[in-house]
Design brief:
Blueprint: H1 3-30, H2 35-61, E1 64-65, H3 72-85, E2 91-95, E3 102-105, E4 113-117, H4 118-123, H5 126-141, H6 144-171, H7 180-221, H8 224-237, H9 260-269, H10 271-274, H11 283-291, H12 297-303, H13 311-325
Parallel strand pairs: 2-4
Antiparallel strand pairs: 1-2, 3-4
Helix pairs in contact: 1-6, 1-7, 2-6, 3-5, 5-7, 5-8, 6-7, 7-8, 7-13, 8-13, 9-11
Length: about 325
C-alpha cells in the first residue's frame, strides 16, 4: 500500500475516533453513564456492525454464489489476476441487478466476496472486465472493506445519538428546572455536526482509496486502457438509469452511480485529454444525452457527498500511468 495512503488512512481514523468518541463521551457522561459503560457500549456496537453487515449485504443484493463450473471466463479472470496480485481468491457471487457495477465485501480478506452485477457482464468485453476485477482485487489487497467498516462506525454512531437525542427532547419531556430538554437539543445538534464532519472525512478517504485501487488495476493488468474504457462504459450506461435508489453499498461500487450525469459531462469537457484512452467514445452523443437530463437540487447536493473521484479524472490518471508503463 502507498505510504501516502497509509498516512492519510491512519490520520483519518485517529481524527474521526478522537472527535467522535470525545463528543459521545461528554454526551453520555452528562447523563451519568460511567466511562466503562461508554466503552463497552461503543465496542459492542462496532462488533455488532462488523458481524452482521455481510449478511445485510447478501440479503439486500440478492446474491447468488456461483459454482466453479459456472461463468468459466469470470473464474479464469479472477484466479489469474489474484495470482498475479498475490491475494487470496475471493468467493464469486452474481447480483441479478442490470445496473453495471461490481464490488467486494467481507469481514476479512479470507472471507471476502467479489460481487459482479449481470449488467456489468452484458456490456464489458474480457479486457474491460479484467480491469474492473483487478480494481476490486486492489480493494481486497489494501483491506479496504475493513477500513470502510471502521471509519463508517463513528458517523453512524453519531447520527444515531443525534436522532435519539432529538427524539427524546421532543417526546421525552424532561425536568424544566434543570433545562434538560434544552441540553438534549444542544447535544443533539453537536452530535449531528460530528456526524457531518465525520462523513466528509470518510468520503475523502474513500475517494483516495478508489484512486489507489485504479492504480493497482493498471499496474496489475499492465493495460490501463482496459479500466479506462470500462469506467466510461459503466458511467455511460448508467446515464439513463432513472430508478437509482440510495444504498449503503454506494461506497463499495466501482463508480458512484448517483453522479454519472456529472461524470459524463466532465468527460465530454475533457475529451482532448482522454480521447486516446477511449477512442471509440462518441463525445457528441454524450453531450446530447447529458443535455436531456434534469438536475435537481438533491442531485447537486449529492455530488458534494460523492464516494468516488470524478470519472474523467480517473481516466486521465490511467493515461498518466500508461505513459509511465511505456
Amino acid at each position: 500500500m502507498s505510504f501516502d495512503l497509509t498516512i492519510k488512512m491512519y490520520f483519518t481514523l485517529f481524527l474521526m475516533f478522537a472527535i467522535g468518541f470525545g463528543i459521545i463521551y461528554f454526551i453520555l457522561l452528562f447523563f451519568g453513564v460511567s466511562f466503562s459503560y461508554i466503552l463497552v457500549f461503543a465496542v459492542l456496537f462496532f462488533i455488532l456492525q462488523w458481524a452482521i453487515s455481510p449478511q445485510i449485504i447478501k440479503f439486500s443484493s440478492h446474491l447468488e454464489y456461483i459454482k466453479d463450473t459456472e461463468y468459466p471466463e469470470l473464474h479464469e479472470i479472477v484466479q489469474n489476476l489474484a495470482k498475479e496480485a498475490n491475494v487470496v481468491v475471493p468467493r464469486i457471487a452474481i447480483s441479478p441487478s442490470q445496473e453495471p457495477n461490481a464490488f467486494v465485501f467481507g469481514r476479512t480478506r479470507k472471507s471476502a466476496t467479489l460481487v459482479v452485477h449481470k449488467g456489468l457482464l452484458s456490456i464489458l468485453d474480457r479486457n474491460e472486465l479484467s480491469g474492473v476485477i483487478a480494481h476490486e482485487l486492489g480493494h481486497l489487497k489494501h483491506n479496504d472493506m475493513m477500513v470502510i467498516t471502521f471509519i463508517s462506525f463513528i458517523p453512524m454512531l453519531a447520527y444515531l445519538i443525534a436522532q435519539n437525542l432529538f427524539f427524546s427532547s421532543i417526546f421525552g419531556g424532561g425536568n424544566n428546572k434543570n433545562n434538560s430538554v434544552d441540553y438534549l437539543i444542544i447535544f443533539g445538534i453537536i452530535a449531528f455536526l460530528v456526524y457531518l464532519i465525520a462523513q466528509l472525512l470518510m468520503l475523502s478517504l474513500s475517494r483516495s482509496r478508489e484512486l489507489y485501487a485504479d492504480e493497482f488495476s493498471a499496474k496489475t493488468t499492465k493495460k490501463p486502457a482496459n479500466l479506462a474504457s470500462a469506467l466510461f462504459k459503466i458511467s455511460y450506461h448508467n446515464i439513463n438509469n432513472v430508478n437509482k435508489q440510495s444504498t449503503n453499498l454506494q461506497s463499495f461500487y466501482i463508480i458512484d452511480f448517483f453522479n454519472v450525469q456529472r461524470d459524463m459531462k466532465e468527460i465530454n469537457e475533457h475529451y482532448k485529454e482522454i480521447k486516446s484512452m477511449i477512442p471509440e467514445a462518441d463525445f457528441s452523443m454524450i453531450f446530447s444525452e447529458i443535455s436531456k437530463q434534469k438536475h435537481s437540487f438533491w442531485g447537486v447536493l449529492n455530488s458534494l457527498y460523492s464516494t468516488h473521484p470524478p470519472t474523467y479524472l480517473r481516466i486521465i490518471n490511467m493515461a498518466k500511468i500508461k505513459q509511465q508503463l511505456h
